[in-house]
Design brief:
By secondary structure, this protein is of the alpha+beta class. The chain is built from 13 helices and five strands. Helices cover 65% and strands 8% of the residues.
Length: 382
């Protein structure tokens, strides 16, 4: 993994520390991306799909004037019809492309964005082969052959993983090959081979630029959503992630547990040993908690010595067992060598019949205060 991380860093021009070694796989496949990154990337992809669709919707019909002035009447009329249909499709994509923060919607938008001009390319290529064009008409007709090059170059502005680049670029390359195959009787195979190689090279360069964008987005998101002291998620990003997880849990009718963790007598650490010792204690708590968390759990620094632990697909009993394991493992040591303890309030959306983020946090917070009133160093779940 370290070798792979080094190779990726050198190829993409990343600086040390921009992407952690455990995040290298995020450049290959989207399946390991955290929900917050998925949401922000989905919104970014959709916005760029709508931007490109608007650009194509404006430019596609304008070229009809050029076709009318340079191409035979039968040809330009068919091309104009195709351009009008493509323009309508692009306008529809601008208006109805979903902005729900879901990658599935972003994928559909990108598929349509690249499918429309790809189909237009195949159709226009078949039409062009029925006419013998010369002079200016031939030059204009040749320009249609550059559409796949434009599409592949466009990938460079989308932050995509390697697998996503392959999934979207392959149909464009296949469409180019199909267009040539449909005209096999007059096709110049050496010319096709050279152009296809150039297209593949352009697709590779665009994919590299696309992955580089994704790498910097991962690094930027990582810097903005983390608490700089403890590396736990910040409160703002924690709120976003809790909202996302509540939506997913409600949609799939799954449990979602949250634990409100407050360190016991933390103020006395700062007073007796200084804030540096307090900071070290907080870092220690986070390290111990992260080591005990399952994949998919999220630890948020809510404020000061308060933390929120989000546990998706976890009911009240499972969450209680997980917290018991955490407490048995130990939360670390105070500066004087005594065990570090915490008062923990536990809430779960199904058990507490609550699907509202603020109310669910308030329930866990209230139970945390009950834990303190009952003598601290315990978990209260009802």
């Amino acid at each position: 993994m370290r070798i792979t991380h080094t190779i990726w860093r050198r190829i993409l021009g990343l600086l040390p520390g921009e992407i952690a070694s455990n995040e290298t796989g995020w450049l290959l496949s989207p399946h390991q991306h955290m929900p917050l990154l998925q949401q922000r990337r989905a919104l970014m992809l959709v916005n760029r799909v709508r931007l490109f669709s608007l650009l194509f919707a404006l430019l596609t019909p304008l070229w009809i004037v050029v076709d009318v002035m340079t191409l035979p009447s039968g040809l330009w009329q068919m091309l104009a019809t195709m351009r009008v249909l493509a323009t309508i499709a692009f306008v529809g994509l601008v208006l109805w492309c979903p902005q729900d923060g879901q990658l599935s919607g972003a994928y559909r938008g990108m598929t349509l964005l690249f499918a429309i001009p790809t189909l237009f390319y195949i159709g226009s290529h078949l039409l062009m082969t029925q006419y013998h064009l010369e002079g200016v008409s031939a030059a204009i007709g040749t320009g249609y052959a550059f559409l796949p090059f434009v599409l592949l170059a466009a990938f460079s502005i989308f932050p995509l993983t390697l697998i996503e680049n392959l999934a979207f670029a392959t149909p464009v390359l296949l469409a180019y090959a199909i267009a040539w195959a449909l005209d096999w009787s007059v096709a110049s195979w050496p010319s096709f081979g050279g152009e296809f190689w150039l297209l593949s090279l352009l697709a590779s360069v665009s994919s590299l630029a696309s992955i580089s964008q994704l790498a910097f987005i991962i690094a930027l998101v990582g810097q903005t959503i983390r608490d700089p002291l403890t590396t736990a998620f910040s409160r703002r990003s924690g709120i976003e992630m809790l909202e996302l997880q509540l939506v997913n849990a409600e949609r799939n009718q799954m449990p979602l547990a949250i634990a409100f963790i407050d360190l016991d007598h933390f103020k006395s650490i700062n007073d007796a040993f200084g804030h540096a010792a307090g900071d070290k204690t907080l870092k220690q708590l986070v390290q111990k908690t992260l080591a005990c968390m399952r994949r998919g759990d999220v630890l948020v620094r809510w404020g000061g010595e308060e933390f929120l632990l989000l546990m998706p697909n976890t009911d009240m009993i499972q969450a209680r067992l997980a917290l018991d394991r955490l407490r048995q493992q130990g939360l670390g040591l105070r500066p004087d060598g005594t065990p570090l303890t915490a008062s923990i309030g536990l809430a779960e959306r199904l058990a507490d019949k609550c699907n509202h983020r603020r109310q669910l946090v308030e329930i866990a917070d209230a139970r945390m205060y009950q834990a303190k009133q009952q003598g601290r160093d315990r978990v209260v779940s009802d």
